[in-house]
Amino acid sequence: MRLARHLPVTTLAVAIAMSGHAQAQSEITVATVNNNDMVIMQSLSDVFEEAHPDITLDWVVLEENVLRQRMTTDIATNGGQFDVMTIGTYEVPIWAERGWLSPLDNLPDDYNEDDLLTSVRDGLSHNDTLHALPFYAESSMMYYRKDLFEKAGIEMTDQPTWEEVREWAGELHGMEDDLAGICLRGKPGWGENMAFVSTLVNTFGGRWFDEDWNPELNSEEWTNAVQFYVDLLNDYGPPGASSNGFNENLALFSRGNCGMWVDATSAAGKLYDSDESDVADSLGFAPAPVAETPKGSHWLWSWALAIPASSENQDAAREFITWATSQEYIELVGETEGWTNVPPGTRESTYANEQYTEAAPFADFVLKAIQDADPTDSTLKPNPYVGVQFVGIPEFQSIGTQVGQTIAAALTGDSTVEQALNSAQRATERTMQRAGYLD
Amino acid sequence: MTILRSATSATSAPRSVTGLRSAQSKRAIITVLGWSVALVIFFPIFWMILTGFKTETAAIADPTLIFSPTLESYQDVQARSGYIRFALNSVAVAFGSTFFALLLAIPSAYAMAFLPTKRTKGTLLWMLSTKMLPSVGVLVPIYLIFRDVGLLDTRTGLIIIYTLMNLPIVVWMLYTFFKDMPKDILEAGRMDGASTFQEVFFLLLPLTLPGIASTGLLSIILSWNEAFWSLNLTSSKAAPLTAYIASFSSPEGLFWAKLSAASTMAIAPILILGWMTQKQMVRGLTFGAVK
Amino acid sequence: MTKTRASGRTVGGLRTLSLQAPAVTLLLLWMIVPLGMTLWFSFQYYNLLMPGMTGFAGLENYEYLLTDPALWAAMGNTLMLVGWVLTITVVGGTLLAVLFQQEFAGRGIARVLAISPFFVMPTVSALVWKNMMMHPSNGVLAWLAESFGLPAVDWFSSLPLTSIVIIVAWQWLPFALLILLTAMQSLDEDQVEAARMDGAGPVAIFFFITLPHLKRAISVVIMIEMIFLLTIFAEIFVTTSGGPGLATTNLAYLIYIRALLDFDVGTASAGGVIAIILANIVAIFLVRMVAKNLED
Question: Which residues of B touch A (CB under 8 A)?
Fold first, then answer.
């Protein structure tokens, strides 16, 4: 058993050793996020070090925001502190364009590059060359409580609409003590409430910018979408919705406080794990709801491993990231940690694996959602940017957070939706002018 | 009536039985009041420590004191990153920087308190105003300097930063404590022919030990909890406990029990130190008694 | 002794200079180098994510921040936050210092318990308060309210700034307590005893002896807290992200959104310079007050 598990890795190592790389001992520093999948990677790194006695791994594991700031400072000042960085779909194209990341061409044949899901691969490419390898990828979908739906006599549809969701939320709300009809993100932030709101706006037919980078935040579509969101959460949401992010909602849903929840597909494994969730037995899955258009109704995000151009251990770093994102690695996790803990959303072979599809009944939804999401064409009307739930420009982090704040104010009733969107529009225009997109 | 009396002044004993009784009930009220206030203030930390012994699902359940305690979170936390390595860095950095800050500040505060000039007040205020420089504004310049002199990810680098960061506060606090000291004691020492060095070491320091202890404690706490420079200037070798905490804070998923366990371990050393220092700080050596 | 007195100022001045030199020189360096750089960058186009875009920006970075419609709200919030936390911690700290100065059973342990919130990292205490204390459905406060038959308060939505003030005050009250309690140690017992002999009650003793004695320590608490409170960030970031709307956006958070999220070093530096100027304006008022106490 143990031998079999190590065999593929060893073969890989032998293959590389034979290709004539006589490497000296090298120590590589890996910077990564503290999410569960990465923690597993860290715990399995012994396997890698055993197969590559000439490489030792040094880990820097930090929470997302701290890590992002830390890595940006280092890479932009050419600090050379890290050999492998964990970055997202948002950063990769921006950083690659500035020449900060080593292009990952000529990957070894057994890495099987074609196995990577196309939409994920596109998101991590710059000029058609990969600049980071996907570690895991996620989209968004809807979770619901089968038991409550049954009790209320509601039939889930193959593709729910937001109108239906509103009705169902009304029926579920208050059915049990402390039960909210629906939970959604409300905490301000470009990666928090705005990730969700952007997909809602997309499916309501809106977009962040027109083709000349004029913001459209006070358009009819935005107003409709945000008004819908505010009403839905105020009528059928949990108390304190405006400070709930992904984690808070995950906690609420897994304690049985939400009837429905629309959020990242990566929550599925956690909700399905009965050690972490009280609702594992009654968990239902559905695609993210739609309204006017299915376009952009669910997002696409991936965490990927990249090598900074400033790294002095390029070869060793490449050795590591091709291992950590390989098919063999996925199988290693499946066998040691259980198949629901496999890093999802990166390879077709994962979804062809029966052990995985059996253990993870949500696999099909996730695969379909990821394949469907198209960051280059995410809105009904054409737009100039790449990204579903974000806009792939450096300025978006502050724009998104600013707009997120005004929408949170509309949610708590501090301002009307119209006031909020008008002020968001003005603020965004200001930022875009300053950055030189607008005159 | 006895509100401000300390142990040393127990000479004026209450005269009548009723006085004794009222003194006793006052003592009882003060005990209850003191303990209730302390417990209320400490409660969130108590709750955090408790949460560290829960499972992740129990940590987000309705508040209750009854649960089956588990060491699961501590095991998870320990399996993921070696506590000792981070703790040693924290100890080295916090104590190192406090030592240097005190070393630099004591002469400075002495001069300001006992040999004031026209510029003293200005210097003091200016020192403090250096603290107003927002760290985020100077991150990039400092990062570039550190990169070029090879101080990134070193304890020395952090000790330098923290010494400078805490120096103004340390000078200020020492200055106020020195100022509180009756001048005649030092004068008397000087009359007996004590040098400046002797004066500082054998008179000033012992007499102001409570003040120095709390200044030192404050500087240690500030360095221990400093989370901007420690996160941005270290990666793996010199990373202190703040980085340890940041690796358990806010990942995707449930994390409150693990974070609580990690935080408990991170504050434990300093809590123990605080308890030891407090004896020193308030051991009741007052200048009045010395006189 | 007479020699020192006779030559007075010069000798004292020289001694002062040599004793202060190490600290002052280092601080001077620490201040001039980064401050100089901050000033320089604040007049430049310098964005980490835009390596090509460099050059002299004139006052543009300042203009961008100073014309921000959110600026006034952020300044208001900063002052409210500083003002309230200072009031709570100084008043509360003084009362607690008097309380913990009394002899009672287990005083040493009670003191450490009361000081300990200061030992907890700001991010952690904010997370503990948000998720375990103030959470509207599974927080301890909600549970308490419900057991008294009251509705649970939705802290961060309905009272966002108050919630932040509570968290920050909880962290800084122990600091005030620590300093004031230490300062109480040098209170002249004879003076208290004499006053008591003259028939002064505890309230009179507090106002006429204890409080004047603590004056300088209180000034220090105010000055030091102010410096830290003006730049409160982690507590806001973890709990409300500056929202809802601008309700909890202070100056530090505003600069973070406008400049640091984008890694715009130029604008962030300008924000830094503005923050220093503002801090000094606030400080001038306090300094007047403090300076008087420094005299004697």
Answer: 55-57, 60-61, 79-81, 139-140, 143-144, 147, 152-153, 231-232, 235-236, 239, 243, 246-255
